[in-house]
């Protein structure tokens, strides 16, 4: 395609309105979340990494043209003033540090409310969902946040629905994602919906992402041992995760941290409220829970991976731990 053909294709795409995204960047926004989202659009919009806006268009919009500083210190200039929000298919709010008292100004809040009134879908990326929630724009919608921010979201907005078990969520007129690499996953979903699967595949290949994860994929989480501040408990639980097949005896486990079995049991009861054996079982069940949600592996295969001899024994233990069978948990994960 010659340069003049590229320009014409770009103009045609804009007039057709294939996929247009407006980005609102908060003060101290997360650069990686913004970059991964916008680069997924860029790479999907044209062939051979020419950066032409053939199939998609995007703007960084703001109440002023002043530079916006990311949490890492890099500055980004808005490319558009606030315009009629209905020009965009989506408005994406990229959040960042929660310690910033006023991440966006009142003009921005008014613009987001105008977009809502005109039925333009709003997406909160990273802590962008906090901004939308504070503006009263997440009522009757789920907010997906990082597990790092789940507790603070609950404290700030106790009446709103929030989850930290998924990478992202698209809930009618709202979207939200945990940030980081999940920004590319959410952008890929929009590309697939508005452009094509080929465009999605092209973007992810250039970004060196093997495949897009879905809204059913589980968010990587802090390991269980991070819940406890005793070094011996942490060391023991790290070892449990390394021997998730259950092959490490409690006696040997105690020896790895320089304790007798009885000493280890006393410390676990004191620091975690459960015995080492129960903690070990929990670690194995959490691993099984993650595998169930993220793969189609047969139950017997998962059972063997976490140290059970048969699927029925595994099913009983799983249900006793989580209140539902492995099959029920997998079905529920797929439904979201």
UniProtKB/TrEMBL annotation:
<keyword id="KW-0238">DNA-binding</keyword>
<feature type="domain" description="HTH araC/xylS-type">
    <location>
        <begin position="234"/>
        <end position="332"/>
    </location>
</feature>
<keyword id="KW-0805">Transcription regulation</keyword>
<dbReference type="Pfam" id="PF01965">
    <property type="entry name" value="DJ-1_PfpI"/>
</dbReference>
<dbReference type="InterPro" id="IPR018062">
    <property type="entry name" value="HTH_AraC-typ_CS"/>
</dbReference>
<dbReference type="InterPro" id="IPR029062">
    <property type="entry name" value="Class_I_gatase-like"/>
</dbReference>
<protein>
    <submittedName>
        <fullName>Transcriptional regulator GlxA family with amidase domain</fullName>
    </submittedName>
</protein>
<dbReference type="GO" id="GO:0043565">
    <property type="term" value="F:sequence-specific DNA binding"/>
</dbReference>
<dbReference type="Pfam" id="PF12833">
    <property type="entry name" value="HTH_18"/>
</dbReference>
<keyword id="KW-0804">Transcription</keyword>
<dbReference type="InterPro" id="IPR020449">
    <property type="entry name" value="Tscrpt_reg_AraC-type_HTH"/>
</dbReference>
<dbReference type="InterPro" id="IPR018060">
    <property type="entry name" value="HTH_AraC"/>
</dbReference>
<dbReference type="InterPro" id="IPR052158">
    <property type="entry name" value="INH-QAR"/>
</dbReference>
<dbReference type="InterPro" id="IPR002818">
    <property type="entry name" value="DJ-1/PfpI"/>
</dbReference>
<dbReference type="InterPro" id="IPR009057">
    <property type="entry name" value="Homeodomain-like_sf"/>
</dbReference>
<dbReference type="GO" id="GO:0003700">
    <property type="term" value="F:DNA-binding transcription factor activity"/>
</dbReference>
């Amino acid at each position: 395609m010659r340069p003049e053909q590229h320009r014409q294709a770009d103009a045609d795409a804009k007039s057709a309105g294939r996929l247009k995204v407006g980005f609102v960047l908060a003060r101290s926004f997360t650069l990686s979340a913004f970059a991964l989202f916008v680069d997924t659009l860029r790479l999907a919009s044209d062939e051979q990494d020419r950066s032409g806006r053939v199939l998609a268009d995007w703007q960084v919009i703001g109440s002023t043209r002043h530079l916006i500083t990311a949490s890492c210190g890099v500055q980004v200039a808005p490319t558009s003033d606030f315009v009629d929000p209905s020009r965009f298919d989506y408005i994406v709010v990229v959040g960042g540090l929660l310690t910033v008292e006023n991440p966006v100004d009142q003009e921005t809040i008014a613009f987001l409310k105008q977009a809502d009134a005109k039925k333009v879908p709003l997406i909160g990326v990273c802590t962008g969902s906090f901004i939308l929630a504070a503006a009263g724009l997440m009522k009757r919608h789920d907010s997906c946040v990082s597990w790092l921010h789940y507790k603070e979201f609950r404290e700030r907005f106790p009446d709103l629905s929030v989850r930290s078990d998924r990478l992202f969520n698209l809930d009618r007129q709202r979207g939200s994602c945990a940030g980081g690499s999940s920004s590319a996953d959410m952008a890929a979903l929009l590309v697939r919906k508005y452009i094509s699967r080929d465009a999605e595949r092209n973007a992810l290949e250039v970004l060196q992402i093997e495949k897009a994860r879905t809204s059913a994929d589980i968010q990587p989480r802090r390991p269980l041992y991070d819940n406890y501040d005793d070094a011996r408990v942490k060391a023991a639980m790290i070892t449990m995760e390394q021997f998730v097949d259950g092959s490490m005896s409690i006696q040997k486990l105690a020896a790895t941290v320089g304790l007798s079995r009885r000493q280890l049991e006393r410390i676990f009861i004191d620091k975690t409220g459960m015995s080492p054996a129960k903690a070990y079982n929990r670690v194995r069940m959490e691993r099984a829970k993650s595998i169930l949600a993220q793969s189609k592996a047969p139950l017997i295969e998962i059972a063997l991976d976490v140290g059970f001899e048969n699927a029925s024994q595994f099913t009983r233990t799983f249900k006793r731990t989580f209140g539902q069978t492995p099959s029920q948990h997998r079905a529920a994960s797929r439904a979201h």
